Amino acid sequence: MCGMPSGETTPAVEYEPDVVRPTKEDEVAALGSELFGGPLGRRALLGTSWWTPVRVVALVALGMFALGMVQKLPCYDSGWFFGASSQYTHACYSDIPHLYQGRGFADGLVPYFDKLPGDMDYLEYPVLTGVFMEVAAWLTPGDGSMQHQEQFYWFVNAGMLMVCAAVIAVCTVRTHRRRPWDGLLVALAPAFALTATINWDLLAVALLAAAMLMWSRGRALAFGVLLGLATAAKFYPFLILGPLLILCWRAGRWRAYGTALGGAVAAWLVVNVPVLLLAPDGWAKFYRFSHDRGVDFGSIFLIVSQRWNIAISPDMANNWAMVLMVLICAGLTALTLTAPRRPRFAQLAFLIIAAFILTNKVYSPQYVLWLVPLAALARPRWRDFLIWQACEVAYFLGIWMYLAYTTSGDAHKGLPTEGYQLAVAVHLLGTLYLCAVVVRDIWLPERDVVRRSGDDDPSGGVLDGAPDVFVLGPAARPEYEEPARFEGPVVEWGADGASPAGRSSL
């Protein structure tokens, strides 16, 4: 109007839609958005609003974390202290208050250096997690009743874990530059909120999420350092180095892989070597415990053992788990080297961690946290994600109801063995389902929602858009034509902000 001749309109402005809106490509996301006022508008897309994706997702993640804390309220009042079965019937169990006294923190014992009374001679957690637990103990007042101290210890840990949850949400948002709203999958995941304060797994998950962000930015050394720290907090993160090796082999990115590997090894050694040298028995407890632990809750081995009355020793379970993992790794290697397009890093990272979970001799309910950020990056489709989450929530309720049944004596409150086995099967099938759709996306890249949006491998860093140098199968034949890559269109926005002409269904 001002400064424009009468009768003239503002010329159309070319704008490339850097941000992919899930409400435009996902029917479940579009339907769910109606609860909050409908799909995102032009101002949110252009980033002119204060409510940027990072801020929205972080606030939603913190809100869901707080709801998860509220869900533990029945146990906070009494369940952790006065009733073994009530913490299960209310599904509010947490290791944190129990281990405050059970692992010597209440008595000022130093993890790995001081022996614990009873059968558990040393703390059975990796070093960085032990440091996290010890810092929380320092922040817990030592006066008052033991119940008061344990309550305060849980609150201190919950506050520290809330920071980890925010880090996970923000890193997931920023890993895929054009798909920040996929971070809502993490923020709104019900199993994430329900299991966040059961144990200390969020520390390793946050470090791995930060590592994935660094790799997506091409910072191989920072990725390696963070991955090494994540492995010092929990065993599983180092597994993603395997599929990353195959991806770098296919793309010929050996230098980046070497830098990442060197950074990971160095960071892990910096954390572990001092404790290894000064307290070797305490340091080795985690590895002895993991090896000697018998078949436990949530595993396929438990179903086999219970239903067919087969005694499965720890060594037998370890050997079978190792064989299954080797076979799966061989299959993932073949898939990576023969797929029509090089798989995305997040897809293989999800698959290798899921394989470890499925073949492990124990599945604690908080292990779902390991997969949530990777699932959001590997398969950002709300329908599939929510199907899997429903299965995990069913298992979350199932294990507590089963423990209530086994601890309630003759009252038999809860879920009997057959019902618990069904809950385990639901968890296994839900995870297998999500793995199946990710494998399908790899083999049929035109089905991959991330690549349909115009990206190649936004979490791949130096792998993103890199040409292949080593492939097998049909893709290696001279006459093979690589599947066409969808390129995002240039969109013309009108002066009135209406929907642009010629827009594709992003």
Automatic annotation (TrEMBL):
It is a multi-pass membrane protein. Its main location: membrane. It comes from the Bacteria. It is found in: Cell membrane. The chain crosses the membrane at residues 50-70, 152-173, 185-215, 221-249, 256-277, 297-313, 320-339, 345-364, 385-403, 423-443. Keywords: Cell membrane, Membrane, Transferase, Transmembrane, Transmembrane helix. The keyword Transmembrane applies. This is Glycosyltransferase 87 family protein. Belongs to the glycosyltransferase 87 family.
